[in-house]
Design goal:
globular, single chain, mainly alpha
Length: 97
């Protein structure tokens, strides 16, 4: 499962209002008729961290391993120029030139 904070583009210290605003903005960028999978992922992410209580439960009890996309995003954010592609990271992690 993708990291809900990265998926919504918010910091893990964000408050309820900031997360709700990021959720609405993400829904405008990815409506269900354009990208149904991303729309569903955004809804799931918001459902996991919408309130302070849900964020605490997510931090304490989430045992899902990080997705490869999340690791890549944390290592080299999309805004950073010269970011390697997912395939290049995969090759680096597997020891391929």
């Amino acid at each position: 499962m993708r990291d809900p904070y990265l998926l919504l583009g918010v910091d893990d210290q964000a408050d309820d209002a900031t997360i709700a605003a990021a959720y609405r903005q993400a829904l405008r960028r990815f409506p269900p008729e354009r990208d149904a999978n991303m729309f569903q992922a955004i809804q799931t992410a918001y459902g996991r961290i919408a309130t302070r209580r849900q964020r605490l439960a997510h931090e304490l009890f989430d045992t899902d391993p990080p997705a490869l996309d999340d690791i890549l995003e944390r290592a080299a954010p999309r805004e950073r120029p010269g970011r390697p592609s997912l395939r290049q990271w995969h090759d680096l992690l597997n020891g391929e030139p």
